[in-house]
Each structure stands twice: as C-alpha cells, then as structure tokens.
Amino acid sequence: MPKKFVKEFTVIENSALNATNFLIKVQSDTELPEIKPGQFVNIEIKEAEEIFLRRPFSVFEVDYEKNVISMIVKILGRGSRKLTEIKAGSKLSMVYPLGKTFTYPSADDKILLIGGGSGVAPMLFLAKESGLPVENVDILLGARSKEDHINVDSYKQYANLHYASEDGSLGEKGFVTQHSVFTNNLNIYTKIYACGPDGMMRAIAKEAKAADVFCEVSLENLMACGFGVCLCCIEPTTKGNLCVCTEGPVFNINDLKW
Amino acid sequence: MVDLKVKLHDIEFKNPVTLASGTCGFARETAEFFEPGLLGGYFLKGTTLKNRDGNNYPRMAETPSGMLNAVGLQNKGIDYFIENIYPEIVNYDTQLIINVNGSTVEDYIALTEKVNELDKINAIELNISCPNVKEGGMAFGVSCPGAEMVTREVRKVYDKTLIVKLSPNVTDISEIARAVEGQGADAVSLVNTFLGMAIDAEKREPLLSTITGGLSGPAIKPIALRMVWQVANAVKIPVVGIGGIMTASDAIEFMLAGASVVQVGTAIFKDPMIPVKIVEGIEDYLKRHNMQSASELIGALQV
After folding, report:
1. DSSP conformation class of A156
2. Closest by Cβ to A53, choosing from B29, B67, B273
3. Pick from A2, A49, A53: which is nearest to B270 by CB?
4. pTM surpassing 0.90?
5. How high is the mean pLDDT in each 10-residue block of chain A (258 residues)?
6. What residue numbers bound the domain in which A188 lies?
7. How many domains is chain B built from?
8. CB contact under 8 A, A50 and B64
9. How far away is chain B from the Cα of A44, in angstroms, using its nearest Cα?
10. Which residues contact B174 (CB under 8 A, 6 or more apart)?
11. What ipTM did this prediction achieve?
C-alpha cells in the first residue's frame, strides 16, 4: 500500500486572510491518510510555464469527515502568488503527506508555540492536536503590524494567544523574542516549538538552548522533490547533511548546527 | 498483448522505463508511491567508495522548464549501501543498477570490485560525467583519453554489464562514446546534466553555493535527443536515453532516435507518478500503431 500519494483535489475555498495571506481549502474524493502538524503538501502550480517545480505548504487543518485539507498560503514569490489566484472549483495536484511531525507534548507538559509569517499554520495545528488544557498552551504570534496578523481568535479554545508586532499596533511592540511571554522566564515551559523566518527561529533556538528547554523548529529550506530523492533541501546537522523534506521539516535544535 | 520487454546488452528490462541516478534515491523513496516492479529498472543514487557530504546549501535553482542542481554526490559510501540499503531493496522485481563514481581511477576500481560481488546488481553505470564535484567525475568524461582510461581499468575488474554515462559538456559526444566502446563498454547512457548557472540580480549573487550546476528537465530535451541520435549512429553498443523526458511521447522519441532504454529523471520532482504513466503510455502507443514489441521502436526513426 502506498504511504504517499499524488492526487487531484478540488479547491473549495480561497479567501484572503489579509493582504498577503490566503486560506486555501481543498477536498479529495478519496479518504485522507493521517496528517500531523508539521507535515506538508507539495502543490503543482498550473498555467505558469515559468514555474517548473511544486511548492511546499504546511498543513493548517484537516477535516477527515469531508476529506478537506486547509493551508495558509503567504505570498513569497511567483509560485505562491499564482496559487493565491486560484478559484473555487479548480483542481490542484497535491503530493502528500510529506515530512515528519513534532514530538507531541505529554499530558504534564506546558508548551509555548511561536509562529511568525507563514509559520503560524503548523503552530495552530499543533496547539489543537496537543490535547492539553488551555492554561498549559501559550501561542505567541509575530508579524510586522496588526494588518499582517491573521485573525486566529477561534483558537482561544485551545490556547492563550499572545501577539507581537514590530510597530506595536497589535500586542507588544517588537519581535517575538522581545515579548514578555518569551523574556520573562522560559523555564516555566517544558517544550517550545517554533516555525517562521530563519532569523526568528535561530533567535528562539539560542534562548531555548541557554535556558535548557526542549525546543523543536520547523524549517523551510528550498526543495525540489519533497520526498527525499533530490537531496537539495539539506540542512547541516550533527548527523550530517539531512533532507528537510524527509528527516524534517521538524528538527530538535540540539541536532542543528546553529 | 504487446511486449514491453527490451534488452540492453545481456540484461532484460520488463519495460524500457527506468529512473535516472540522482532522482530516485535508492528506489525505496518512490516505493512509497508505487510498486517498484512497475518500472524496468532504477539507476540508483551516485555512490562513492567513502561517505560524501556533498556541496553546501543552496544546491538547487529553478529555471525555465527545468532546474539546476549542485548536490555533489552526497551519499554514505558503498559499505553503507551494502550493509543497510541493499538488503532492503534486493527483492524488488526490477533491474537495480548502481551509479559508480570516483575522484581517482583507484577509487573507481575499488568501488567496482565491491559492486561486482552483489548478485542482484546486473550492471553498473560508470559516471564519468558529474559536473558538481571538484575532482574526478566530469574531468574523466570530457576527454577521450580520460574516458578511455577509466573505462579500460573498470572493465578489467567488472564481469557484468558496464554502462558508461556520458557528459554533454563536450565538443563531440559521439567521439567520447566511440572511445569508451573501444575500451569494452557494453552500453552508454546519455546525457548527464548540462553545466549551467543562475544569478539573483537583485542581490548580485549566484543562486547556487557552487556558482555553477547541472541543468536538467524539459529545457534540455531537444539537445539530449539530438545527442542520443548522433551517438546511436556512431556506436554499435546500445544506448540509454536521458534528458528531460516528461511524457510517453518523449520516451518514445528517444527510442526512435536509437535508445534501447530510457531514464526518467527530473520529471518525478514534478510528479512522482510520471514514470508509471509513461509505461502505460508506451503500451497505448504500441497498440495504436499495431506494433507487437517495444523493441520495434529502437532506432525506428524514418529519415
């Protein structure tokens, strides 16, 4: 039996969350395999001759009853821009499920999830999946301004939400690593998870390492295949150069050469 | 019923569709999508005597209708393959061919001797055409004396089918093909990637850590097809056709130009199921044209 699939999905929703982020929901006519936070799909960008390779996107939500996968697509380049122009009813070819998930928290863990930019999706997914009581789950989201933040109020049922914005228009002013949730005392957390821009994750990893708190990050290295054959998305680790697409995208910071 | 079987020297492929080295890992990765036995064979990831970490990130740049790579033969070495990978894939019902690389002739020989002992590996693909390593690789494959020397020395220690993979980065690829034929190669495979380059104009920086890399994908297909046709007309040994194959029609074109077997490479990054669709497409083509066997396609170009 195959473990990975290439199938056409039908786009059932494409809505703008703000100027640069879109929520895209796609439906399969067959049953979905189990998909976990951190795992991703590789999407073919159609009707764009100059775009040869697929584009990888983290899974945001999965509805197994309706066979629907949701993704938050942030416009970063030509491929993602083209994808955000897709209309409901169109077909999308997806390769899935790819990559590995996070180390799930145990019942007595208190966790901090930090998302920046397009890294918000797997953090929210993990918060929902963690099964922990709200008081043991803190989510810290960073963006440039209020307009760049995505409204995630519905996740209040899973976590305490905290915001940082560079201009101070939402939550505390500054980067996520300057937010009081992060600077007060990291040792109240037993696990920290992060997904977002490289600089943000490196800054978080540095502090988590100093505080000796378990920390996993989800990387976004440039990929060609997405399933471990091209060896293009490698990250140098203590175990050698590893493929982010199959050995990651989630890595423990102690395994990275950061 | 049409017969999809083709022969390359003395080994038989259940169909002419194989996967190219460097794009199919060790056949386990694509096995997560489809049954390995659906394809004629797999040219496994380029292997060296010792572990190689490969080049630094970034190793890839998307280009119009293709991509550049600069992986640099990252692999864990032949001993790791024999101990950890070979047992896992040995029972796949398909041809498994190891792509053999070295920095020196001694490396090629030592590696080939080890591969010669593996029962299920009926052939090697001698890679004298990797553009992404500093030593060896393409350095041997761009001159007739270099290509002849490596082929001759490896031939001495290898009993089974010896396929030599040729570089297109030469003035006349048929000369190199004739040179390796003269030293006992049983077949040639072509083409490896074309040396290319990509630049980020905004940053004024190269997109690859190595500055240059190997171009693959449909962008190279017409040039690869021309080279396969030229080589097939220049040598008596069979030819394996490689270069930008995306569809059954592409594969058939390479066979008409003279290839006995084809390798699908970069296409599987676009869609891992493409090789299986190509097998089905070749079968459909043969039926439509009232042909009995895939081998009838080989060199059947009407000029």
Report:
1. G
2. B67
3. A53
4. yes
5. 95 95 97 97 90 96 98 93 95 98 97 92 96 97 93 94 96 96 95 96 97 97 97 97 98 97
6. 111-220
7. 1
8. yes
9. 7
10. B230, B231, B233, B234, B235
11. 0.94
